[in-house]
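Here is the promised in-class demo. Please do not try to memorize the tokens; focus on the logic of going from shape to residues.
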């Protein structure tokens, strides 16, 4: 169901070309984002909006480097195992094969479900042994993930995103132990990225352990738009050192996020009228093919959470 719901993210795009000037050229970068809810753009209020991936695409677009962007391989709730399973699918492999730039967010959904967050009392708890096993599984899956991506596309630049501490609202004494587990997760991602010839993007320092303004919901681990902006700028610091950061003013121009309730209602409507949806899907695919065939055309808002 997650995949079907994600197909309704058609209204979630960064900024239309009518709002901001677009500079493109034929040999531009094809950017593919894969991973979990952070790559997809989940908000603290169970919505899907603009992610750090959209903001990265915007930055590349504004400098005339972007040819296409897709976050069709980013799904809320996905673990490293599920991200790996994605790569077995024909459509996913086709996207990866054409990519020049790939970002990955994976690992949090292997770890965070094992941490109990008592938002009322401001307390965290977890069992050490299951967490240790989970982190070891993350390492093994990242090894496979990099191997499979390289087998599909040996030439793409790969950037693995780190994670921030997602519990700023708990009591101070509750933070160090869980922050330590997040640090181990980040070290694993960094180590395996370097072994695979990929890049690691640290984001933890941009948030710290008291970023309640960036993670405003005590019961939710997802960032506000300003948090996603921090992540995008962290990427730019690694990708293009010395480049100007994306300005805060961009946040005022983002499209409104789509509540999960509307995504689910759209999914139910699709189920009730499958024939019409199949016809619509065929038309969408045809439009996407026609649009992607001319890389020099201005970037437009596209179907299924994709920029072409």
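The designed amino acids, position by position:
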């Amino acid at each position: 169901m997650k995949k079907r719901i994600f197909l309704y993210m058609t209204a979630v795009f960064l900024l239309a070309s009518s709002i901001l000037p677009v500079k493109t050229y034929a040999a531009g970068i094809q950017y593919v984002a894969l991973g979990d809810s952070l790559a997809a753009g989940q908000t603290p209020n169970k919505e899907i909006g603009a992610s750090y991936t959209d903001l990265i695409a915007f930055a590349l677009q504004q400098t005339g480097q972007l040819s296409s962007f897709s976050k069709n391989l980013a799904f809320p709730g996905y673990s490293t195992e599920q991200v790996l399973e994605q790569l077995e699918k024909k459509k996913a492999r086709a996207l990866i094969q054409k990519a020049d730039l790939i970002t990955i967010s994976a690992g949090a959904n292997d770890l965070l479900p094992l941490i109990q967050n008592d938002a009322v009392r401001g307390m965290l708890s977890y069992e050490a042994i299951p967490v240790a096993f989970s982190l070891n599984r993350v390492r093994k899956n990242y090894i496979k993930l990099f191997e499979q991506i390289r087998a599909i596309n040996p030439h793409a630049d790969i950037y693995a995103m780190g994670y921030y501490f997602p519990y700023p609202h708990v009591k101070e004494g509750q933070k160090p132990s869980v922050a330590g587990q997040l640090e181990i997760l980040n070290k694993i991602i960094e180590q395996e990225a370097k072994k695979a010839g990929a890049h690691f993007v640290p984001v933890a320092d941009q948030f710290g352990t008291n970023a309640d303004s960036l993670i405003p919901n005590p019961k939710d681990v997802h960032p506000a738009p300003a948090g996603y902006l921090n992540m995008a700028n962290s990427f730019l610091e690694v990708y293009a050192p010395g480049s100007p950061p994306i300005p805060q003013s961009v946040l005022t121009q983002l499209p409104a996020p789509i509540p999960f309730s509307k995504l689910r209602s759209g999914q139910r409507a699709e189920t009730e009228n499958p024939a019409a949806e199949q016809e619509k899907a065929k038309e969408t695919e045809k439009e996407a093919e026609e649009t992607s065939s001319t890389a020099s055309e201005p970037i437009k808002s596209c179907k299924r959470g994709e920029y072409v």
